[in-house]
Structure formats: structure tokens, C-alpha cells
């Protein structure tokens, strides 16, 4: 049976990125030991960035912000729960900490400082409003598709600033046409440009996937200007996202990087969620795809004096739960995404706007 990506299913609903309608909770990478020289805080915040929360805590106990460990940055416009760590000798000072936008929910000891990336993923709870009966049925259908297949792993709007053009300053910094002293801001803007290039590449691969849903391999080759026969057998793969010769895969949800050798075999493994394709975050010391996959990647690859990386192009949405409150026309969702992924990717697929 042909698998149809639900991009043509347009759903209308209202989503407000606010603490009332949007909750994010970190899932720690490991269990905390209960002993050690570091104190781990489970912190709930709202209407403030992670940096602002760290400044409030560090200012109260009298340490530098960089002395506090954290696993990831959390959205300002949500109710977020995350874990931070600081030297345990400041535990007594914390007992008098009070802030209208921050609440310390729990504390425990641990052997080491929490580092960036030390989390399995994030649990999201989202409330969609003005969802009437027919829209509810459509959302149910698309959500079922998402549970079975996953979603594209775009970088979210948070990476690109209020006006969506942070990447332009990042490009200028890399080109040398813009100077900036603040190191953290400079790194963020240049990372925004890397994220922009990744998203542009993923859009191109999504165009290929969508064409193969509607046209033959030969017709798709013509539309995209690809060599004759280069897509042979690709359209028959079981999933929506099609693997190409030379694609670099990783075991999922984390693991070793390797190149596709047999498309049919690896497509079956991808369908069982054992592995997933990756895309390039351009930079140095990063492996590039080969073959036809490399052709697509080269369109959005640039030399830059920054470390690059490989990022999952396609992710799975797990622990999906839903609840429809008919009298309020609210559709409530709960799901888990791997670290570094954005809830907006799920919302965009639900709207039918994920390209």
C-alpha cells in the first residue's frame, strides 16, 4: 500500500506558546546517585530563558553562572522543568531562595556536574484550542501516522530569532563582513547559520520524498534534474523518507555512524526504527555523505572554521497520548522527543506544513 505523507491534510487549530498551554520536561540521561559533591536541582520556570534562570540562582548563592551545570536550554514561552547542578556546599544558601517565576521542586546529590547534552530527551505537553469535531478526526488520523512513522528533524524557529534572520548575521561573521566581541552571541549566530543550511538541505530531501509519493522514479529524476536511473528502487522503500546511495546513517536513538551499503536492507532497518538517516551540519572534521546523497548535501555545504556534526534527519515521536475535551474544543497532547528536537516539528506535521 502506498504510504501518503499527510502534508496535504490541512488542520486548523490555535496553539499559544505559553506556560498555560505548553510544558516541557527534561528526561535525565542517568539516575542521580544521591551522594557526591554536587547538588542537583529539579527546577520549574516560566516566562524566562534558561540563562535568566541560571543568573537568578547564581546571583542568590554568589557564584558565577558558568559554575552551574545544565543539560539544555529551554523555551522562554513555556512552563519548563529541567535539572541543574551546583556545588553542594551552597545547599544551605539555597534554602532561602525565592523567585516568582522559579520553583525548586526537588534536590538530590550527585558525583559530577551536569553537562550540556546530558539528557535522553524531553517530554512535551501541548494544548491545542478551537479544535472542532471534524478537525479532531483529522488530528487523530495524522497523529496515528506520526506515531507509526515519525517526523522530520528541522531546527526550530528558536534558532533563528524573532525575525527569523539570525542566520544572516551568522553568515556575515563567517564571511568576515561582521565583527562581534561577545563570544557566546557570536557562536550562537554562527550556529544559526549552520542550522539554516541543515534545514535547507532537509527541505530538499523532503521535496524528493514528496515527489516519489506522487510520481514514478523516472519522472522524479526529470523534475529534480537527477541522472537517469539514479533513483532505481528508491520509490519502493517502505517508509516515507527515502534513503539514497551514500547516505550516512546512525543507530537510533544514538550510536555509530555508517554509510548505506545496501539500500533495501537499510530501508527495512529504518522502517523498524533501528537506524535513522543523518544530515550534515556543515563544518570541519565531519564526515560527508557520498553518492547521490552527497549530491544533495553538497548544495548546502560550506567550508567554515567551525566544528560540524551529523544530525538525525528523521526522528521518532514516542509515548504519544491524547485527550479531547469536547466542551472546550481542546485537544491535549503529550509526547517524547529525543534531545535537540523541537515540538514545532510535530505541530507542523499536524497542520500539514512540514516542508
Automatic annotation (TrEMBL):
Q: Give the species.
A: Sulfurovum indicum
* The protein's name in its UniProt record: tRNA pseudouridine synthase D
Q: Which family does it belong to?
A: Belongs to the pseudouridine synthase TruD family.
- Active-site positions, per UniProt? 75 (nucleophile)
What residue stretch is flagged as signal peptide?
Answer: none
Q: What keywords does the record list, in alphabetical order?
A: Isomerase, tRNA processing
Name the domain of life this protein comes from: Bacteria
Top EC category: isomerase
The UniProt entry, under InterPro entries, shows: PsdUridine_synth_cat_dom_sf, PsdUridine_synth_TruD, PsdUridine_synth_TruD_insert, TruD_catalytic, TruD_pseudoU_synthase
Per the record, the GO terms for biological process are: tRNA pseudouridine synthesis
Q: Which GO terms describe its cellular component?
A: cytosol
Q: Which residues form a coiled coil?
A: none
Write down the NCBIfam families for this protein, in alphabetical order. Answer: PRK00984.1-3, tRNA_TruD_broad
Gene3D superfamilies in the record? TruD, catalytic domain
- Where the record annotates domain TRUD, the positions are 150-327
Reactions catalysed, semicolon-separated, are: uridine(13) in tRNA = pseudouridine(13) in tRNA
- What molecular function does GO assign, one term? RNA binding
Task: State the CDD domains in the record.
Answer: PseudoU_synth (cd01291), PseudoU_synth_EcTruD (cd02575)
Any idea what job this protein has? Responsible for synthesis of pseudouridine from uracil-13 in transfer RNAs.
EC annotation from Swiss-Prot or TrEMBL: 5.4.99.27
Which gene specifies this protein's sequence? truD
Amino acid at each position: 500500500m502506498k504510504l501518503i505523507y499527510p502534508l496535504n491534510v490541512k488542520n486548523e487549530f490555535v496553539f499559544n506558546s505559553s506556560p498555560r498551554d505548553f510544558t516541557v520536561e527534561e528526561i535525565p540521561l542517568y539516575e542521580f546517585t544521591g551522594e557526591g559533591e554536587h547538588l542537583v536541582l529539579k527546577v520549574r520556570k516560566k516566562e524566562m530563558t534558561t540563562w535568566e534562570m541560571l543568573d537568578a540562582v547564581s546571583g542568590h548563592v554568589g557564584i558565577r553562572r558558568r559554575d552551574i551545570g545544565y543539560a539544555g536550554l529551554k523555551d522562554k514561552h513555556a512552563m519548563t522543568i529541567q535539572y541543574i547542578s551546583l556545588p553542594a556546599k551552597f545547599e544551605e544558601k539555597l534554602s532561602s531562595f525565592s523567585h516568582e517565576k522559579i520553583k525548586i521542586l526537588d534536590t538530590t546529590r550527585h558525583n559530577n556536574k551536569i553537562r550540556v547534552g546530558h539528557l535522553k530527551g524531553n517530554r512535551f505537553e501541548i494544548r491545542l484550542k478551537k479544535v472542532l469535531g471534524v478537525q479532531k478526526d483529522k488530528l487523530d488520523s495524522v497523529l496515528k501516522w506520526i506515531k507509526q512513522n515519525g517526523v522530520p528533524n528541522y531546527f526550530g524557529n528558536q534558532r533563528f530569532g524573532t525575525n527569523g534572520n539570525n542566520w544572516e548575521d551568522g553568515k556575515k561573521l563567517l564571511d568576515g563582513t561582521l565583527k562581534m566581541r561577545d563570544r557566546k552571541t557570536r557562536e550562537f549566530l554562527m550556529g544559526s547559520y549552520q542550522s539554516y543550511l541543515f534545514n535547507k538541505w532537509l527541505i530538499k530531501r523532503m521535496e524528493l520524498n514528496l515527489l516519489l509519493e506522487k510520481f514514478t522514479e523516472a519522472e522524479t529524476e526529470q523534475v529534480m534534474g537527477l541522472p537517469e536511473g539514479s533513483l532505481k528502487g528508491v520509490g519502493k522503500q517502505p517508509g516515507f523518507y527515502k534513503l539514497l546511495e551514500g547516505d550516512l546513517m546512525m543507530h537510533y536513538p544514538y550510536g555509530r555512524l555508517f554509510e548505506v551499503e545496501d539500500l533495501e536492507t537499510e530501508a527495512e532497518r529504518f522502517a523498524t526504527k533501528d537506524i535513522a538517516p543523518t544530515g550534515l551540519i556543515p563544518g570541519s572534521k565531519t564526515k560527508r555523505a557520498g553518492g547521490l546523497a552527497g549530491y544533495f548535501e553538497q548544495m548546502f555545504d560550506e567550508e567554515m572554521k567551525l566544528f560540524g556534526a551529523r544530525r538525525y534527519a528523521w526522528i521518532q515521536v514516542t509515548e504519544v497520548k491524547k485527550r479531547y475535551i469536547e466542551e472546550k474544543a481542546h485537544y491535549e497532547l503529550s509526547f517524547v522527543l529525543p534531545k535537540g528536537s523541537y515540538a514545532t516539528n510535530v505541530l507542523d506535521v499536524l497542520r500539514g506544513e512540514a516542508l
